[in-house]
Design goal:
295 residues, mainly alpha, 13 helices
């Protein structure tokens, strides 16, 4: 196995497993930290650490304004809205249900590529999407509650996040972010964190809140999101976008629900049914067909 192929497989594994665990981590983090403020501090911290690492590696040239602007645009689409809206929605939609809805992201990307880029997916990719939808149906037909009367807000937030995430993925492969991928990733997180922070202050999220309210579980979840969810997984995600097509990268959203359900059962007392395990196997089958499809 070549080194590049090994890196690609490792990056897929990270985005599949680590991002699958962030649903539960986000839920725990916003339990005692303001929603958008949590995202802002998470991305600003991760972006600053990653940018500092690029400086330590010796790259001390200032980024070109074009590269900084393009990175900020991608960061806002992928992180400020793409991730921020989904985390916000978890106030109204259960974590497991959120992960299931997000699993339709590869279909969104496929049709965006087809509609806006005239890139018709191969038949094998459509078959993979069909298999995955069947797996989704197995999961959705279980007694999973959507939430309370405000669940519509959550559904709209998830939909907005999915559309912006898809747009960000497609633009990421077309905008010039500079040769230093790690620095581009850091600038994406810094731009996204700044926008989220301004939005958080505009909503007056911090009024009456104090650091003493943060629970140990929320603090550890925030730390996990910074190190693993942002620095490691988002770097792997950006690496994949530079190596394979966007529809293949987005297949992480097929596997993430499986990871989310398993962790929910192990760490959050949620039931894991035989139907869930069967659905997970079907979903992975769909991932195989989409990943192995060639245009």
């Amino acid at each position: 196995m070549g080194r590049d192929r090994l890196y690609i497989l490792l990056a897929f594994f990270i985005t599949y497993v680590v991002w699958g665990s962030t649903y539960l981590a986000n839920y725990w983090a916003i339990d005692s930290i303001p929603v958008f403020g949590m995202g802002a501090t998470r991305f600003l911290t991760a972006g600053a650490l990653l940018y500092a690492f690029t400086l330590l590696r010796g790259d001390r040239t200032l980024p070109k304004p074009r590269h900084a602007l393009n990175s900020a645009v991608i960061g806002v689409l992928l992180l400020s809205v793409g991730t921020g809206a989904v985390v916000w929605a978890q106030q109204y939609i259960p974590t497991s249900t959120t992960s299931l809805i997000i699993a339709f992201e590869p279909l969104v990307v496929m049709f965006m590529m087809w509609g806006f880029l005239s890139s018709r997916p191969p038949v094998k990719a459509f078959f993979g999407a069909f298999v995955s939808i069947c797996g989704m149906a197995l999961l959705i037909t279980q007694p999973i509650a959507v939430g309370g009367g405000e669940s519509t807000y959550g559904l709209l937030g998830i939909a907005a996040g999915m559309l912006c995430w898809g747009a960000g993925m497609l633009l990421r492969q077309r905008l010039d972010l500079g040769e230093n991928r790690m620095r581009a990733t850091a600038m994406q997180m810094l731009g996204a964190g700044l926008v989220l922070l301004l939005f958080s202050f505009s909503l007056d999220e911090w009024a009456g809140w104090s650091w003493q309210e943060v629970t140990q579980r929320s603090a550890l979840a925030w730390l996990f999101l910074v190190v693993f969810g942002s620095i490691i997984a988002f770097s792997a995600f950006n690496y994949l976008l530079g190596q394979v097509s966007a529809d293949k990268v987005s297949t992480n959203t097929y596997v993430n629900p499986v990871v989310a359900v398993l962790l929910g059962g192990l760490l959050n007392g949620e039931a894991i049914t035989i139907q869930s395990m069967l659905a997970g196997a079907v979903l992975l089958g769909g991932v195989y067909f989409i990943n192995s499809a060639t245009a």
